[in-house]
Queue: 4 jobs
Job 1
Amino acid sequence: MSFEHPNRNNESMRDVELDIMSRPPEHNTTNLDLDRMNLMLDILGHPEQSFRVIHITGTNGKGSTARMAEAICRAYGMRTGLYTSPHLEKINERIAIDGQQLSDDDFIDIWDQTKDLVALVDAKMEEQGKPKMSFFEVLTAMAIWKFADTPVDVAIVEVGMGGLWDATNVLNADAAIIGPVDMDHMQWLGDTVEQIATEKAGIIKPNCTAIIGPQPHEEAVMPILAEAAERNHAMLVRDGYEMTASDRMAAVGGQVATLTTPNGTYEGVPIAKFGEHQAHNALAALAASEVVIPVNGPLDGDLVAEALSSVKIPGRIEQIRTSPTIILDGGHNVNAAEALRKAIEESYDFKQLVGVVAMMRDKQVEEYLGVLEPILSSVVVTENSWRERVMPADELEKIAVDVFGRDRVIKEANLPDAIQTAVNMVDAEDELGVGYGHGVLICGSFVTAGDARLMLEEHASPTMRQAMAVHQPAVDPDDSDQPADKAEDEAADNLEDSVSPDDFDVFDVLGLGKEQAGDAGTGTASADTDSTDTASADTHESPPPSTIPPTSGNPHPRHIGYPDTRHTENSLTPCISRNSPSADLNPSPPPPRCASSPASRRSSAPTVRASRTSSTP
């Protein structure tokens, strides 16, 4: 960061984001080359050569795998840089240092350092009759420069789309992870899995370790990936062959599994995410971490367990509320829908699950809905905030009716209204009022998940913050030679002699003051209670809260506002669910079990036991 001139032009985060995001998108067939990125790195002096790289592609699971690998490397004391996409709430999320996204000042400062160089590249491309840098290329260049400037020991980088011509492919990976390859982005990557696999195999670089996740189209895809690895003299590590995930067992907040890599077997590893696919993502992340962490042999099982049990992955089967359970998932293709369905069937026991769906018009909408149809009681179709790409609610409704039937489909074009409608439907069927067995699934796009997350995130109430801010005087250590027991007895006697009940004022203890207490007693809204605490720092003017009338089955439905608020007679106060989301619970494994014997070729690999204990449901 430029400490001498941080944000020297007094730019706002909104202005910087508009500058960057107004550039051409990466969804462009006219910029399928790395000319702009290579020129940018030449100008910057090739900062990408200063750190090791884990590069991740695949149709699904890239973001989860990236965050898991980053957590493992950080647990080992390595300084980490993380670059992921898309962002859910703030553009800052895309670039993180040591697990923390860039602050607004940091982000603005990096833009200030690179924007003149971006203009230089744009001018050079214009001379050659080529397009200027896309917003994704600009963000990628900013991330690489920030990683070198920090500096980091290892960068974990998620491909934006494809691999071969992606802006991130100017990096030479030490470990290249290729997750499941399936049909998505066909208009840019090709309309067969073979063509898509060829694009993704482009991140395999000379002498790297190529880590291949489970492939749904193995017969078609694996020969292409194996040929790319052989051509680049890369070491090939395949899920199901050189590495395995086994002995999976559901646990509180996630699962426990035994992970076997080329370096050893890790038993009872806690993974704080639901679904079999997340166990395989963790396996790939672990294998890649073994490549870049400077340790011979297997990694420390306790550190691996600590990392994978605490990693947070927003928008990926994320339970953000309880009572009723509300789950967010940003997956938007058939493979993601299949993983989502399996995870819900394995980890939850819903009697009623209402879907809230908004999708982009260029996705396989009917196939996606068809995969989820067996687990959804009904579906509320809606629209997200990306108006240029989102499928209109009228069109989505027609497709949903074909899949679910007329009686199971409701249309609410406004997303806050759609969420409120779903919650009302769940409440109407919840006779006990505790939300058990009833839930809402918000899915179909990362934009949908991000919009919903902004509305549903819990915020501490102003009154609670005020109570927590009460000054607690520091206690100086007692240096006297008086025995501790005798001193405590004398202090207790003195307290009884000098203090009476009349000396205490409950309002002074709470830090409210008698005047404020009087206002509270008469129902007057506190001056500190305002709606600014309920919105994200980068939101500007939020739409008014949704007020869906109660359904006939429940006279007191929960209100899901935008942002997360509930109307009262005199004030607008944050709406906090009764329980903390279970996704915040860190699962930990049961006492170590004997792992199933690895294949004979792996019999010499050491076994690492995770020492943490776990409770299972």
Job 2
Amino acid sequence: MRDLRVSTSDVELSQNYKNAMIALDACDYDQALVLLQKELEGDASKEVYYALAQAYFAKEDKVRAIKSLIDAVRLDKLYHEAFALLGDCYYSTKQGIPAIESYAQAVAINPQDEQYMQKLVDVVSVFQFKKANPNLKGVLIECLACDNIDVHFFGRPWLSMVSRDATIGPFYKLSKCKNYAAFKKHIQSFPNCDGLIEPFFLTGFGRFIILDYTFEVWCGYIRRYLLESIVEEKSLFSDPEDIDLITCALSRYCFFTDYVMDASPEEVALVAKLEKRVLATKNPKLSDLACLACYQRIYNLDNAGDIYKNLQGGDHVSQILKTQIEEYQTQDKIKDKIEALTVIHDNVSSAVREQYENFPYPRWTVASRHAFNKDVVRELQKGGVKILNAGCGTGKEAIQMAYTFPDAEITAVDLSRSSLAYGIFKAEQMGIKNITFKQADIMELGGLDEQYDYIASAGVLHHLKDPKAGWKILYDLLKPNGLMRIALYSRHARWAVNDARSVIQNKNIGSDAQSIRDFRKNIKTHLKHKSIKNIEHFFDYYALPECRDLLFHVQEHQFDLIEIKEILDTFGLEFLQFYLTEDLIRKYKTHNPDDESATNLESWAAWEEKNPNLFASMYTFWCRKT
């Protein structure tokens, strides 16, 4: 349990209280409760109530913990530690709204605590809101503005609040327009576009993927309308400088999704005019540059270096554009310095490498600091552990492991230098020192004279020419009793993806950026409604590199649980646990009472037959070398 106790240096501590703290630290919660209850007889302080709550929380007595915390904040309405623990209590008892209110109070009182912010964002992320609470939005703006908060799943609640907001909501209703002509007619009926400069909207825009194709269409409409107005030099806002705010925010979204939105021929012509205008000067208008950045990577411009020098940056909105140029230049330099651990001879590995050089995967900005499963990986918390991340991509998983195992020695390998460069850049940005990134082919790792305590290979083996052979190579690198985390595609869950891949192959549709955009634009002519709706529930559908990975991959194998069981048995790997939510595992156990440990893969296979989308995000599991 996280120690949330505040300093009590300004309180005269009794011996009972000091002994209770010693008991808490020793996890002797019954003794702590006895001492604290005795302390209440003479000192009903906030610290005593808070310590009581800690002990009750540890004993799973959430009702008494909540009561004690309410007493604590009654005595001190600015007691942010108590509000945070109150949020933990409510969240653990599935009381979402009170948890949100408690975490929001903690953030409002102490906005410097990023742990409070992360907890608030995490609990809000499972909600959609019918009404936008102004106070909650104000606190969430603080969270969204913090670069260290993982907001990956925040898109749905964010959009629910944006769409119902009195300021920007009327603009978002135009997402229902059937085409751009209808959208333009309606938006021109507004006196101005000031409603687009809504702080909550602007702060979140481009920080995460929005799992909603209607939102993407609306963004396309907004982008085109801004482009036309900027090229024609028409004013849209009461304050002319507000155009900078919306274009920079929109450019962040377009850059993050790697320009997945298609552009009409009319837009392409206007973009050419705008690009010519931007190239003609070392210091273009910010709105011109930002609007161009909504359509293409501005770091490729011939005058990108001069533009970078002249951008104000810092706290100014222009930092969004400055970052796009700066990060590319930094990563480009990193690429040349990456050490090759193995050669890449295999033709399939070479094709996969080329794909990820052009489409580094995955797109991310903040890596979660949560351990994947504390019970499974607890034994790896000791120092001196050696970890291999086989197929690290852009480094997100490796950095998550570095957070979880700060004393471990982590080697992260991948085929793509572009992906590795991003991982190295992010690790340096976050001050992480215990990862060594190298270029390597898993199929060539057999000659490595190393043994690892933990090997993670998520979403990688199914892209090899021979996944089982690659898995065997990793198995041989694992120490006896070592842990392995594997993630493989489910054949059952990817039925709609398979429909798309069949169409792409049969119609000989290309896998370049424009072909992917064209396929998405015309998807209704390619697939049935049921398949489209399933695909639209994948995060990967909404960014170009991810869509390339999802539907257009150069090499893909799929599995079922019986096949996986046979491979585990052949290698002598013990299946430990799936990476699923507690609710899903609990539901499985309810319907499979004979499998108390939830490790019978034959039972899981039967359960998946009834729930084909259960492993839509892959079979992700831990196993142990016996």
Job 3
Amino acid sequence: MYIDDYKRWLSADLEDPALTDELRKIEGQDNEIKERFAVALKFGTAGLRGILGAGSNRMNIYVVRQATQGLANWVKTQGGSQLVAISYDSRINSDVFARNAACVLAANGIRVRIYDALMPVPALSFATRYYKANAGIMITASHNPAKYNGYKAYGPDGCQMTDDAAAVVYAEIQKTDILTGAKMMAFEDGIAQGLIEYVGEDCKEALYSAIEACAVRPGICKTAGLKLVYSPLNGSGLVPVTRVLHDIGIDDITIVPEQQYPDGNFPTCPYPNPEIFEALRLGLELAEKTGADLMLATDPDADRVGIAIRCPDGSYELVSGNEVGVLLLDYICQGRIEKGTMPKRPVAVKSLVSTPLADIVAADYGVEMRNVLTGFKWIGDQIAKLEAAGEVDRFILGFEESYGYLAGPYVRDKDAIIGSMLICEMAAYYRSIGSSIKARLEAIYAKYGRYLNKVNSFEFPGLSGMDKMAGIMASLREKPPVEIGGYKVTKITDYQNTAQTGLPAANVLVYNLEGGATVIVRPSGTEPKIKTYFTTLGKTLAEAEAQYQSPSVTALPEGEPRGCTSSHSMLTREMERICTDTLHSLFYDHPLKRLAFLHIVHYSIIWIQPSGASRRPIWMPVRVS
């Protein structure tokens, strides 16, 4: 079947010659053909995301057209404005895909508002709401490596598409022939007929005004003298972020030159992700040279922002997404109470994998903290519920540990523009009272305890990746761990059990351990990864870190796994036996027999790394019931 699809593409007169060249190069290479044609990228609530290239399992103009025809079929059943908003980031072919989407919509008689230059996720969400559109399209793969691109679909509220709507769109996509099924109109014809229009300056200015209206202490930055280094990581954040920062009074902004302008190749970092140190390295070096107070970096679609703060000794410290979320919550609560702008019965929302410290801080300020499934659409859903009840002003903050923040109801997705603005405002305020972000963070820890959060991500590329991930999650359910790192599992919450959680079903497992630690395991919804989240609590950092003991790696001989040792502990023979049994059951037929183990002692997590290959590791608990 996939060979037939390949031959059809190869014989077709494709508009993109690069796709034809790629198809010719892989002729006779079954695995390469299979990777591209055996399956199709599946459209879900996060849209599409995949590697650029030829085939149904790659991102290209034909996959984009097919997806857009499916979306158009759904839009035509919705009534309303019969309009779709479109934006795009700096990734390879993002502008091409955006224009192709506009052409398909126009050919279906659906009006389009498309940005005339790259603009980030929050700008797309805002335009969708501003023009009362039926839907929005954002061409982006967020912070993935350069070889990826994606297609995010939004509903009329500016939030990522609901499950029900996405299912209808997916069904329509499946009815559409990938090469010939999408209607098309030339972009210039769409413009001439008034079906395609550019987003107006009025919309852009309204976005900036909405963001700046969310300031907690307006004007505080004008006299603070903040010195800032900023990197858009070659993405879409440069114009909107610097515009808002200048508006609030921050003029001393040094842009990282190598990362200033849009470049979908992301030449300075393989992962343009502000969660990763390598992406921030150039910004940190420049901050040290210039003596900046803060270093900010936004990802390519500018919905996440990472920061580094200058410490009293002149060094710079990276602040995690969990820490920034807690700092913003604390700052907003404190400031709005002080200014008399705190709403009655305030509400904050966070993902369930984000730090429980935020729950404690919220309770202390009398704020209702709502915990939702991972994915900012669930935070947007809570805002929508408040809006439907006429209580949207109750919403004060939403955040995820993965560096995504929103502090106003003007959009329904995370926004690095407002995140950057409030981080700078927070720094300016603490400076004005003789303090600092660092000092405030330490004060929060001193008051509530030291919460230590760690996240590991493990990739499973290729066609078999999803099956491997499903197998690991199934194994954890079939043989749940009774002990993790010497700590008894006191409670297991399976988020597939909606009766237990009261939330929509999700592939998430939460383990509560003796002593208050938690372990959360979930597959990523947008990437072929399993993520693990660990939280421990101590009175001090040393006490919290004591639960994380030094890992070590022990190479294994061909075939047989054996136990690991570290300077702090040694696996018991029982653990060796259980580990061996578990691995044999999972990998008996695995072609890569040589394995290496990394034992993270506190959590008894085994990191299984096929040696001699560039494959990413996976992990398994070593003790099961």
Job 4
Amino acid sequence: MKLIIFFIGLICSTSALIADDLTDSTAARRTDTVTVTASRSFLTVGEYSVPISTVPQEILDNISLRQIDQALIFTPGLTIQNYGGLGGLKTVSMRGGNASQSVVVLDGVVINMAQTGMVDISTIPISLVKNIQVQRGGGSALYGGNAMNGVLNIESGEHDTNVFLGNIGIGSFQEVSAQSTVHYRSSIGNFMVSGDFTASQGNYPFAFNEFGNNLIQKRENGDFVNSSVALRYRLHNYPFRVTSLSWLRRSDRGVPGAVLQGATEQTAARLTENDIFSSWSFTHNLSKNILTDAGFSLRHNTTRYQDPIALIRGPEGINERYIAQEAHAFSSLSIVSTSLLQQYRVQYSFSDLQGTMIENVEGGYVKRAVISDAARYQYNMEILESQWELQTALRGDYYSDVRFSPSGLLSIAWKKFEMLNARSSLSFDFRPPNFNELYYFNFGTRNLNPELSNTYSFGVFGSLGQNLSYEIDGFIANIHDKIIAIPTGPASWSARNVAEVLNRGVELSLKTQFFDKSLLVHYNYSLQNPRDISQGNNSLLPYIPQEIVSLFSLYTFADNSLGMTLHYYSHRFSLGGNQKEALLPAYSIMSLFFTSQLSFIDIFHPQLKVSCDNIFNNQYVVIDNYPMPGRILRLDMSFSL
């Protein structure tokens, strides 16, 4: 099956060699000078020397998006760890790492929290998503801790005119979705107000073999409600430009556990979350060549987990409450000459957590302060009619509760021909232990060290003719002092720095349009081999597939679009050691969608979206014993005023 999927992608892509012109952002282009603008922040990496994938706008516009994982699966080197349904936890893993080894950035602010070090992307409001980029490879020198394997960068963006945008959707398993956004432009600035609501009963059927009997069961306790409001504005009629993003969000979900022989865990567990976030940035051009940038962000998050029938903690069950707060402030300076960009940044971060299961600290309260300083240089030059981009970055992070962690990045790109260009990078990265790994009851270890890694990447990119663009990147990543859970008793585990990981892989991305640009095809293939090489071990890491394939095709005719998506994930293991009983089979998912602009209605400019995900109703799991939904039907209506 995987060979069929592989060759479908190659056939679709190479067919474009006889087709029409293609204009694509991955094609090689000349840049003779470096410019500095309000949009070029310290976190803007080199344009060519580091592999960056942009989620195509056609995907964001045509798929009935409920959560952003539906768009991210079209990115090479990226895996979504999904516990099932809209209410299931969803995290991003890049290049064989775990979720806490990648960072998620929203409008320039890292939103990973110190409690877990990762982000549940199922709670990010869809109405805020304007553009998505994925930087693959180490990025700690730019983004700080956790950016060992990659960065998910989300931008909210603005609209060109005053407009009201709305979307209403329904789907299988009593799924309801609604988004509304108002964009307003004035002489003093641009404003956006948005609201999101998503809900599902999550009671999808799944096949299960119980003691030799093949049964069809329904997922219990899988309901989910997520709602949010957001305000974004940009003021530009002042000596400095002000950009702000704030949101209020609440989610309430069931937390169903593993489906086991004779029982389903956590049939009454609930997770409620309240989140308040606000960020501000201030940008000012001191001169034509000097830009200053400063800003801060605040976040307050309250989480409550309840399971009244889990009597392991007492007759009233489990009732845990956590209050987490984050504050960040930064200042940066950018200086540009004809071909050299210099950027300097200082940052202060403060995080704290108070909760029921925080042990060995007074009042169940822990905190962390971090002071960071960084420098980045990007040099563009021309040698023998070839364009070269050289980028280097250094950073130091001083933690109050773990040891000092330096990081660095060196990357270079060579551009001369349309059909063949090259890039290479070397990075030294780290991940600090999160609060759970340090302090959680029966798990935390106070003297943990940061995980350390070094990653080397080499790639080629360009355009073949004028109708096919490609990127091929290979990498080698080595992680030291990896934190893993070690059993210490019948019901207790302990976090320890004991593992070492070696991962090698190749990522391929092809993009094309043909038949007079009416057919668009995106094809991605990832091959990786992440292995635990500590203490004579040589086993694959749990839940990381060695092969990932994604195919997105879109045919546009008149005011309509018809598309197909295909995803393939190779076998994985649910446990280290790779025992046969821990093998999870490979699976593939095919989906169809149709979009129509109802041009005969002039008032609301309505757009109809119809989709069928997993059309063959395949039964599969991403996480062992957590069944995924089968076939899902969705109907959306978008409109604008």
